[in-house]
Amino acid sequence: MSNEKYDIETATELSDNTPPNPSTSRRRVLAASAILGTATAGIVPMTSATGEDHGDDEADQEMDAQPPEAVENDFEDDIDLLNYARTLELLEAVFYQRGIENIGDEGFRQHFDGWGPIQDRVADRIRVVRNHEVTHAEVLGQTVSQLGGDPVPSPEFDFGSAVQDPGEFIATAALLEDIGVSAYAGAAPYIQNAALVPPALSIHSVEARHASFLRELNDELGFPTPFDQPRSRAEVLELASGFIVD
């Protein structure tokens, strides 16, 4: 059974009926994918501690096995940082909602025909991911209010045909989840209030689970590297801005 429990305003109200522009949407996805590709440019065949080359197997692919360094701090304070995270969660929540409405259970089922039991479960799994993003956005907004700030309102989003075509939807979802994971990794070191660190890390780990699931649905390895690379606020917003109208 599907889980339709969600109540964030933007996940429903911003689901407009504007006809998508397929060429614009695909350009956005390809451009963002090209930028993301720079993070994996250093992939080399993995060699064991004994010097043995393990070959070309997908499971043996490994990026530079060095832990990442912190990125630049672009945040004024915790309220600024939390509103940045909320914007990304709103983007994901609206993206999933529009895709669910436009593609529907049967669209996902047909796209994954031949995948076995998962083909009947994808739509419900996507709803769970949608609900997580809604909850994240709500909790981040509540936390901003508790800190005396104003939760950022949702921007207007345009996902074009990425919320119409199931294959493009899955590819874009994997892209957005990877962006979200790198955004939390980049921002977390600059949280000033220590009490905010555990919930932020909890959201980060769930986003990483989403990313792994969507990567596998996109026929990619869900956990390609031993270390995730963080992104700065400027880098993340450059990637996400292609979907933000206002």
List its traits.
2 strands, single chain, mainly alpha, two-stranded antiparallel ribbon, 53% helix, Ferritin, disordered N terminus
Provide an overview of this structure.
The chain is mainly α. It has one domain: Up-down Bundle (Ferritin). Helices cover 53% and strands 2% of the residues. The chain contains seven helices and two strands, in the order ααββααααα. It has helices at residues 9-13, 22-37, 78-111, 122-146, 166-187, 197-217, 233-240; strands at 44-45, 61-62. It has a two-stranded antiparallel ribbon with strand order 1-2. α3 (78-111) packs antiparallel against α4. It is globular. The two termini are 36 Å apart. The model is unreliable at 1-6 and 12-57 (pLDDT under 50). This is Ferritin-like domain-containing protein. It comes from Halovivax ruber (strain DSM 18193 / JCM 13892 / XH-70).
Short description:
With 246 residues, the protein is an all-alpha fold. 53% of the residues lie in helices and 2% in strands.
Describe the secondary structure blueprint for this structure:
Blueprint: H1 9-13, H2 22-37, E1 44-45, E2 61-62, H3 78-111, H4 122-146, H5 166-187, H6 197-217, H7 233-240
Antiparallel strand pairs: 1-2
Helix pairs in contact: 2-5, 3-4, 3-5, 5-6, 5-7
Q: Which residue ranges are poorly predicted, with pLDDT under 50 across at least 5 consecutive positions?
A: 1-6, 12-57
Number of domain modules? 1
CATH homology-level superfamily: Ferritin, core subunit, four-helix bundle
Mean pLDDT figure: 82
Strand content: under 5%
State the separation between the terminal residues, measured CA to CA: 36 Å
Shape: globular
Give the CATH architecture.
Answer: Up-down Bundle
In N-to-C order, the SSE pattern is HHEEHHHHH
Radius of gyration: 18 Å
Helical content stands at: 40-55%
Q: Helix count, per DSSP?
A: 7
Structural class comes to: mainly alpha
> How would a crystallographer describe the biggest sheet?
2 strands, antiparallel
Number of strands: 2
CATH topology: Ferritin
Q: What is the CATH top level name?
A: Mainly Alpha
Output the strand order for the largest sheet.
Answer: 1-2
Protein name: Ferritin-like domain-containing protein
Organism: Halovivax ruber (strain DSM 18193 / JCM 13892 / XH-70)
Biased composition (Acidic residues): 54-63
InterPro entries: Ferritin-like, Ferritin-like_SF, Pigment-catalase-like, TAT_signal
